[in-house]
Fold this sequence. Notes:
By secondary structure, the chain is of the alpha/beta class. The protein has two domains: 184 residues, no CATH class; 84 residues, no CATH class. It is 29% helix and 16% strand. It contains eight helices and eleven strands. The strands form two sheets. An eight-stranded mixed beta sheet has the order 2-5-6-7-8-11-10-9, with helices on one face. The chain has a three-stranded mixed beta sheet with strand order 1-4-3. Helix 2 crosses helix 4, helix 2 crosses helix 5 and helix 4 packs across helix 5. The chain is globular, with a radius of gyration of 19 Å. The chain binds iron/sulfur cluster. The site of iron/sulfur cluster has 11 residues, from helix 3.
Amino acid sequence: MTVRPRTVTVRQLERGDVLPSYDWPEAATVWGRVRSLYGLAEDGTVPVVSPWGANTKLGKDRAYPVVGLTLPAATSTLVDGGRVSLCPCSTPQCRGTCLVSSGRMGFDDNERARLARAHLLARHRPEFLGLIRRDILRELRRLRKLGARTVGLRRNVTSDVAWWLVDPTFEPWLRGVADTLGIAVVAYGYTKRRELLGDPAADLLTYSASERDRLADIASIVDSGQNVATVLPVGRHDPMPTTWHGLQMIDGDASDYRPADPTGVVIGLRWKGKARKLAPSWAGFVKPLEAV
Ligand code: SF4
C-alpha cells in the first residue's frame, strides 16, 4: 500500500497537543539527521532560532537585539513529498513579493536551512519545540552577558503561525527564564490573520495589509487601537508621509522594532524589490498615496 506524504497546516499545528522535548541531546541528533536530508552538515548544534545578527532582516534596529525564527513562507514541499503550509492568509501578491517565497530565491543554503526547519516542525514537533527553547535560552544568556536588558523575539520572520497556540507552555517557560536572567523579552510580529488581533495571549502583532484590504478595512483596524503596516510607492530616499487619508502614519523603515511604535497608527513601508513592479492600487498589495 502506498502511504501518501502528509501535509501539515497551521490549523493542525495550532491544536497545541504536542509538548516540547527537553531531551535536547536527542533532539539535536534528530535535527542533525533532518539537516542532512537537505544537504546540510549533520550538525544538531546549529541553532534552529537565529541568534541576533545572523538575520539581516532583524539587524536594522541596534537599540534592541532581536532573535528570530525564519521558516519558508506560504507552502513548501519537503524532501519526503509532503507539504507544510505556514501562511494561512497569504495572498497572491504577498507571496509574489515575499522575500523568501519558496522557489523564488533559488535552492541555496539558506533555503535548504528554512526547509529543514519546516521539516523538523512538521515531522518532529516535540524536538522542534524543545530546540527552540534550547536556542532561545542560549541566546538570552549570551545577550544578557553583552548587557542587553530588553530582547525582541520574532517567531514569524516569514511565516504566520500563532505560536502561543502551538505550544501554550512556552510563554510561562519564557517568563521564568526572563525573570531568572533579569531580562525583558518582547515577542512581536506581523500577521495577515485578522482573527488573531486583540487576542490577549498573542504576541504584539501588527496587521499586515494586502490586496484584500481597502482603506475602510485599514481604518477600522486602526480605529480599534491596532496598527496596520502597508507598502506604499515611496522611494528609498523619499520621506514617508506623517498622515495618510486621515490616519496617523509612521515610517516603518526607520526601525524594525515594532513594540516601540505608538498604537492606532499606520506603519508605512517603502516599496522594494519585486513590490516595485506592482502598480499601486486599493485592490493591490501596494496601496496608493492618493485617495483614488
Ligand atoms: S503572509 Fe507574510 S510571510 Fe507569508 S507569504 Fe505573505 S508576506 Fe510572506
